[in-house]
Amino acid sequence: MKVLFSPRHALHAPKRVMRLGAFSAGRDVPERAEQLLATVRAGGHVIVEAAEHGRAPVAAVHTPEYLDFLETAHREWTALPGASEEVLPSHFPVRGMVGGYPRSVVGRAGYHMHDQLAPIGPGTFDAALASANLAADAAARLLAGERVLYALCRPSGHHAYADMGGGATYLNNAAIAAQFLRQRMRRVAVIDIDVHHGNGTQGIFYGRDDVLFVSLHRDPVDYHPYTVGYAHERGEGVGLGYNLNLPLPAMAQDAAYLDALQIACRRIESFVPEALVVSLGFDAHAEDPSQGLALSFDAYRAIGERLARLGLPTALIQEGGYAVGNLGRCLTEFFSGFEGAA
């Protein structure tokens, strides 16, 4: 399998996040990507350099105001007397009561970030652009006739909306890949297998019928992102029926997950897409610190097999997975299942 990777991911090295009212070390450490890279190298997969696609694929998904904020926020923030090393919003405006767009970076930080799990450091925007470029290049290669690409993206993307970041994400890599594919394909499906609901991806495509979004995740009733990801959310307007959420109970195991995956894949098959984008998270594993679901390594092999049987040109976009020591095996099992069934 061809693997797209950028060393620029290491420019993003967040120092701390706010969790449960206290500062703690973030889980999105550079070692995550390095461990996955070592795994694909050891497995003999071909690591290729991504072509540079510029900012157009990103601008096709994210608003100009948001992109400007991401690019300038750290510089403006650290120029303020007494500011922290990284941008962490101190207030969050109620969207229904917003009367204008703030000029201050303090106001914009709250406007454009939906939690305190995505600090912005000096290299965050460059790392996020490089990550997004991997997703865009995976899509470009599918359009050129390749069948499957793995974009080893870091930072992840599926919690990022068109104009908001959060949940350790800044630019929505999966949405960028799907939108890129839409340049020449009429219908594209996105399936998110990260333990957390892909709320940003859902938000981007919620009113559209050309991109089907399907997400398998821990029930948000008591889990991040808490207020979105419920089964009754089916899309709106022309997008009604083109959003499928399959929330699972806490610490659900392989059998329940694979049953839900069958429902997801049947929905994708009925949509008849021309390509598939997979938000490939490994944080549903039983040993992940996210402690949302309890999948085994064997489950990832089975997931890979089932997705491959869809028979679609596929862009695999790396999302979460924070147990650094077992990420390699999760990826190995997934690849084994996917390539064995392809």
TrEMBL record:
Keywords on record:
Hydrolase, Metal-binding, Zinc
All residue ranges annotated as the Histone deacetylase domain in the record: 30-336
Cofactor(s) for this UniProt protein: Zn(2+)
Question: Which superkingdom does the taxonomy of this entry point to?
Answer: Bacteria
Pfam families found in the cross-reference section: Hist_deacetyl
Coiled-coil positions are none
Instruction: Give the GO biological process terms.
Output: epigenetic regulation of gene expression
Kindly list the GO molecular function terms attached to this UniProt entry.
histone deacetylase activity; hydrolase activity; metal ion binding
Similarity remark: Belongs to the histone deacetylase family.
Question: Which PANTHER family does the UniProt entry name for this protein?
Answer: HISTONE DEACETYLASE 8 (PTHR10625:SF17), HISTONE DEACETYLASE HDAC1-RELATED (PTHR10625)
Stated name of the protein: Acetylpolyamine amidohydrolase
Q: Which organism is it from?
A: Teichococcus deserti
